[in-house]
């Protein structure tokens, strides 16, 4: 293998490495975004459940004359 072939192989390897790293970064960004969306969704669901429980407790108090 001559020097030109070695240089070509190194350049191809570097390009493949850069593409792989960029793809990895894109995947990590996607995962991070999905995690953030999941967290927001869970917080909203938790808030809704808390409100429902509070409403149920108020209804029970009203029904039993405790309010």
UniProtKB/TrEMBL annotation:
Residues 23-46 have a biased composition (Polar residues). It comes from the Eukaryota. Gene3D superfamilies: 6.10.140.1430. Residues 1-15 have a biased composition (Low complexity). This is Pollen coat protein. Residues 1-67 are annotated as: Disordered. It comes from Daucus carota subsp. sativus (Carrot).
